[in-house]
Amino acid sequence: MQADAPQTVHLADYTAPNWWVEKVELAFDLHPTATRVRSKIRFKRNPDAAGRDLHLDGENLSLITLAVDGKPLTNNEYRKADTSLTVPGDTLPQDAFTWEAEVEINPEANTALEGLYMSNGMFCTQCEAEGFRKITSYPDRPDVMAPFEVRINSDLPVLLSNGNHAERGNGMSVWSDPWPKPAYLFALVAGDLVAISDRFTTRSGRDVALNIWVRRGDEGKCAFAMDALKRSMRWDEEVYGREYDLDIFNIVAVDDFNMGAMENKGLNIFNSSAVLASPETSTDDNFARIEAIIAHEYFHNWTGNRITCRDWFQLCLKEGLTVFRDQQFSGDTRGAAVERIGNVLSLRARQFREDAGPLAHPVRPESFVEINNFYTATVYEKGAEIIGMLKRLVGDDAYYKACDLYFSRHDGDAATIEDWLKVFEDTTGRDLTGFKRWYTQAGTPRVTVTDSFKDGTYQIDFEQVTPPTPGQPDKEPQLIPMAMGLINPDGSEARPTQVVELTEARQSLRFDGLDARPIPSLLRGFSAPVILDHSPGFNDRATLLAHDTDPFVRWEAGRALTRQTVMAMLTDRAAPDPAYLDALHMAAANDTLDPAFRALVLSLPSQDDIAQGCVDAGVVPDPTAIHHALKALGRSIGDHMEGLFTTLYDRLASDAPYRPDAAQSGKRALRNMALRRLTPRDEATRARAQFDTATNMTDQLAAFACLLEAGDPQVAAQFEAQWHGDRLVMDKWFMLQVAQAEPKDAVSRAEILTEHPDFTMKNPNRFRAVMGGLTGGNPAGFHDPSGAGYRFLATWLIRLDAANPQTAARLSTAFETWKRYDADRQTLMRTELERILDTDGLSRDLAEMTSRMLEG
Ligand code: PHE
Ligand code: ZN
Hints:
By secondary structure, this protein is an alpha+beta fold. It has 27 helices and 31 strands. The protein has an 8-stranded mixed beta sheet with strand order 6-5-9-3-2-12-15-14, with no helix packed on it. The protein has a 5-stranded mixed beta sheet with strand order 17-18-19-21-20, covered by helices on one side. The chain has a 4-stranded antiparallel beta sheet with strand order 10-11-16-13, with no helix packed on it. Strand 25 and strand 26 (457-465) form a beta hairpin. Helix 6 crosses helix 7, helix 10 (551-572) packs across helix 14 (623-640) and helix 24 (788-803) packs antiparallel against helix 25. The longest helix has 22 residues, at 551-572. It is globular, with a radius of gyration of 28 Å. It starts with 8 loop residues before the first strand and ends with a helix. Phenylalanine (PHE) binds at residues 126, 128, 259, 261-263, 296-297, 319, 375.
């Protein structure tokens, strides 16, 4: 038997702990290979619990001393297993006691980047979800909340932890966090760091010191993040009435980090890619992402920290809500329509894909083996869609009233989805039992629409079906808020937006008194995360694209025409319909529309999106054919609109100083779309000129991508010569070379790059750049019929897994669509999944992922 046979954890098994924690004191003697951690924890009996045993978690700890109320524990007074330590209740005092322990840990050996680890000579921590147990023995579960006091002993100049700075001296610092928090929000940073600093005064007059801590040399890349932080703080006061609650707010940039960033109380730790930015080194998309992540982590202070999750099954309670809040913020900051379309694109690309495959799971899962595997698009993004639906159903006023009630009723709590829904029920008097299905039922509902028109009456019929998902063969109907309007054939609005609540498997709706058959404008604002199965004719879609009052539906109509065109190219070898190209041209040439929106209308669906479209149409996707079809369509669009693209390219050129705001970014997006379409027609002369003269990374990278695609033999070396000193820019270099390679060369390009001296498995960003460049950036290359892409990925996942299971498991989702493909590819992918699963010493993370993919 394996030493550590993976256990499945079930939501239904939740029980409160036997002991609560009243106070935690920690003292660290930092050392790269031998850090000493002393803990002093005041435990208090939970009178509602049946048992009295003390259960502590612990992993990779060398225990030095343990004591209860000052009395050392002898070996027979506790039971130690690989990942736990139990003290039987009958050896413990009745109601309360003080636990003291000293342990030793080895940060340098910690390549999993969970717990206390080293990154470029600096100490840092990552404790969510279950990393604190690698620092000291503790009840590492989110419902145990306590104030922390942390003493750090080290010669390093900057020593940080959560809360307010209580004391500082020679080689030491003490931090005190008055707000009770679970251990997953603990953080510690120590290093030779520099800060850019600012201040913020909250609306009740609290003066807050703000710092962004970075490695020397990165100081010049913090201004944007600092500004985004201050805007987030103000926004949360204005929109949600939420104020910051400490005297200091620290952000630290770390190069080696598994995720985007982490909301540790008062001490957010960021992947440097999610905070550092300058016009020369960062694209407009990078700026937008940084702004969203800064906001996201800051907003967690209330949705996640002050109110946390009772257990990890409730993860969406903090993540869905916080994503929704950061999306609101970005919409307010950058324009709601374009933001919404971007969010829907990402939801479909990641969450719909997940929901349609073997890894599908409810937004609130019922069981897991490794919780790190559930930081998914479903929990985050579908979780956010649920909040959006709730807001639409109850209306804005009730929504913010319910949120206020949530904040006042549950401040300091470890809460559940039931608690969250209850504040809405109490505010509105509405029974939300049916709505709760969004949390418990996996799979994307498919809504089929048919309609008829007779004697001035328009009837529309909806039928909803949610397909089976692993463990959930039968589904109930969902409460789907369908925002819809009606458009007249001339493009004017016949009926304004109304929200129809679909609750039954079949439902119909009638509109009387219409002069002509209207065009339905459905799922306005993408009011629910569903797949709409509706096939209006070409003219109806063209009318919606040209005239609908809802920008999402307008974009969606164009996108549907494009998908239809690609599908016809694939299945009937049809050339793009000139009428389609004209409709697209009209939208692209419409100067009354936001350039960012026009760029989105001109963008093509991803290869993965078309592959899913094939599956929906009952066709086995051929990745190579999809690649060629999309490329051919891009050329046709370029041919058809050469004049417009030439004009746009010239007219949108700008000498204005770079600003990463929505207005300028939108213009650059449209201009760079024009560049892309013109490159095959002008022998890449514009791209070459733009690459050589660009003064910002957005323009340089767009030109770089065009030149790589055009097969320019020098550009990769030129880019490297210019940027080899900048890690974040070099990640783009690694990624784009694989993504833009001819599919047949993509795997060998990726292989060559893994031999580059700057390639390293230790840095998740760099590893992801190469692997993601292949799996996400070059699907036709990844799915090369030889199976070389599958072998390459599996080999590297097995290697990475031994060092960093969490990131290996995440990247394994490249295989989650394996059942979509032809029998040969399925066999090749299954073989690789089995090879991974058969590996000796495979992590729980990757074992769970591969077995779910094989079984699902
Ligand atoms: N809680 C973090 C966020 O959503 C994500 C995260 C999870 C980071 C686990 C690290 C580890 O912002
Ligand atoms: Zn989050």
